[in-house]
C-alpha cells in the first residue's frame, strides 16, 4: 500500500472531516501512524475517539479550548479536552477543573461567585440552565468550540506520558490553524498550555491560570478571574 492509499485509509477510518485534509498530509499521517504504533495497547481514549475533534467542519469553528492530555483514568476520556461522560453536575466524580469551570460560567453570566454546593442546588432548581456534562460539551462543540488536547493519547494511569510524542503534531496544527482559520479565539489555560502560544500566528488569545489550580482572587491571572466565557459570549452560547 503506497502513502496515498495509507492516507485515504486513515482519513476514512478516523472519519476526518474534509476541512482538515490539507493538514493531514501523507507525511503527517505517517508520523501519526508511527506514534500509534509506539503507544502500545494500554492507552486512553479508545482508538475510535483519538481523532474525534477532527470529525467536524473547521470552517464552522470559532473557539479552541486547549487541554493538556486526556484523562488517564480508564474509561473517562472521550477525545474532547475536559469532557467527562457523567450525566449530572452533582456526580461526586466531577473533578476540580470542571467544578471551577462551572463556577466561572455562573459568574460570567450572573455576576456572582457561588460555591459548588450552591451551584448544584441552582441547577437542580432550574435556576442555572446548563446542560449536564455528557451533553454540554457536545452542545458547545456544535456551537463552534474545538476541545483539543495537546496530546491526543495518554498511557492509562500515567498523566503526561504521551505529551512529548504529540508535541510536534500539535505545534504543526497551531501553525496550520493560523493560516487557514485566522479569526479563531484560543483559550489558553495554565503554564503548560502557554508554551504553544508562540505557534499561534493569528486570532485572539485569552490566557489565564488553569482551572485545577485557582482560588486566589487577588491574582488577576487566577482562573476564577478569567474572561474566557465573557469574551466569547457573542460567539458561543455557553448556557443551554
Automatic annotation (TrEMBL):
Any one Gene Ontology molecular-function term assigned to this protein's record: uracil DNA N-glycosylase activity
InterPro entries, per the entry: UDG_fam1, Uracil-DNA_glycosylase-like_sf
GO terms under biological process: base-excision repair, AP site formation via deaminated base removal
Ranges in coiled-coil conformation: none
PANTHER family listed in its UniProt record: URACIL-DNA GLYCOSYLASE
Protein name: Uracil-DNA glycosylase
Organism: Propionigenium maris DSM 9537
Lineage, highest ranks first: Bacteria, Fusobacteriati, Fusobacteriota, Fusobacteriia, Fusobacteriales
Amino acid at each position: 500500500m503506497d502513502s496515498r492509499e495509507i492516507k485515504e485509509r486513515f482519513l476514512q477510518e478516523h472519519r476526518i472531516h474534509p476541512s482538515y485534509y490539507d493538514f493531514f498530509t501523507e507525511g503527517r499521517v505517517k508520523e501519526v501512524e508511527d506514534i500509534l504504533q509506539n503507544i502500545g495497547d494500554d492507552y486512553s481514549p479508545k482508538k475510535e475517539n483519538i481523532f474525534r475533534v477532527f470529525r467536524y467542519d473547521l470552517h464552522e469553528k470559532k473557539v479552541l479550548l486547549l487541554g493538556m492530555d486526556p484523562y488517564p483514568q480508564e474509561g473517562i476520556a472521550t477525545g474532547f479536552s475536559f469532557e467527562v461522560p457523567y450525566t449530572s453536575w452533582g456526580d461526586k466524580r466531577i473533578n476540580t477543573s470542571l467544578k471551577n469551570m462551572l463556577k466561572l460560567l455562573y459568574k460570567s453570566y450572573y455576576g456572582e461567585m457561588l460555591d459548588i454546593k450552591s451551584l448544584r442546588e441552582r441547577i437542580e432548581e432550574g435556576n442555572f440552565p446548563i446542560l449536564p456534562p455528557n451533553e454540554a460539551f457536545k452542545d458547545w462543540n456544535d456551537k463552534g468550540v474545538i476541545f483539543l488536547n495537546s496530546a491526543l493519547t495518554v498511557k492509562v494511569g500515567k498523566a503526561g506520558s504521551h505529551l512529548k510524542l504529540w508535541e510536534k503534531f500539535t505545534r504543526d496544527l497551531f501553525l496550520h490553524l493560523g493560516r487557514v482559520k485566522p479569526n479563531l479565539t484560543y483559550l489558553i489555560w495554565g503554564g503548560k498550555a502557554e508554551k504553544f502560544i508562540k505557534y499561534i500566528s493569528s486570532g485572539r488569545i485569552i490566557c489565564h491560570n488553569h482551572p485545577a489550580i485557582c482560588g486566589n482572587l487577588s491574582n488577576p491571572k487566577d482562573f476564577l478571574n478569567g474572561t474566557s466565557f465573557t469574551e466569547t459570549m457573542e460567539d458561543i452560547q455557553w448556557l443551554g
